[in-house]
Amino acid sequence: MAKLSVNEKVKEWISSGELQLQVAPQGVTKERVAQVLAKISRHTVDIQDAVFALLDDSPNWYPSARDTLSFSDGACTAFIGAHVAILQRGSDAKLDREGRDYWIKPLREVGAIEPCYLPAKKDKVLLEKGLKFYDGHPKAKSPNNAYRLSASFIGVLKAEESEWEEKLSNWINEDDMRIRLEKQAQAAEIIRKLTDSEHSLVIEAGSTHYAPNFLKGFEVIYIDDGDGERITDSEKSRLMEFGLEITNHDAMPDILLWNRSTDELWVYEAVTSDGEVDQHKFVQLQKFCERNNKSSIGFTTAYPTWKKAAERQKLTNNNLAINTYMWIVEDGSKQFKIEG
């Protein structure tokens, strides 16, 4: 039987009576959510409904967490999107892509929403500490990367009618926000080290070993080792300094490098589960290069081991694009050109 999509699962749960929309999850109404968001200049209907979803204390939607954790403990953008579209609005739209930029980001910037991570089966160290959502997004683009409301923000939402505005005023104090964000970042770094993300290590090897040895004269101008979110405004501004205009439709690589003297670009893709420089990516980034009037663009697909490279190329029917390069971290003294 084919695996059900998130939207299909939600509709099935609703139909069976297993899932119902809560009127005031954790005692918080949508009206209160709207009032609080308006006070911090973050109110839109979509952000309001996303916050309302993250208050839901019914069973979690991750299969491994369903019996012990609640939705509010952690939900990925696909879950939040399905909660908003199907459970709250009764439609069947896919809202998760919009969610990353337009619901999550504005609230992460002020510390109201924080990233979290549910351990996968191979995360032995974290699982030994307990099955729960841990701070941060230690593995780039992992389906177990999720979001939750910060405890302090929930405290504002749940405050008594006569107290919430004063609590909110204290919460938005600039020094408090700086401390809040700093603590989130510190906690996330601890978890990242515990998961020892293979993908992150291959990206790091690209900037510390591959580029210095094989791309003389190139400098790293962009690294994407986050949680899959699209490029930020600050990153766009930085890239414009190098004559690069980025849109949300551009497929940004794990590492983008630039040669100041030749005006060449180079793309480095770190692959542990997907993301090779195939023909589609080759063409898309060639267009990006031409649109930005750069002299040329080169490509490298990097794998952690020969075993991983063989597994991926068998699975993808040898999808590496012609005239690109392959590099293996464990055999890092040489690279290989893909020729037709």
From TrEMBL:
Q: Where is the BsuBI/PstI restriction endonuclease domain?
A: 191-334
Q: What keywords were assigned to this record?
A: Endonuclease, Hydrolase, Nuclease
Output the superkingdom of the source species: Bacteria
Q: Name one GO molecular function term.
A: endonuclease activity
| Protein name, entry field | BsuBI/PstI family type II restriction endonuclease
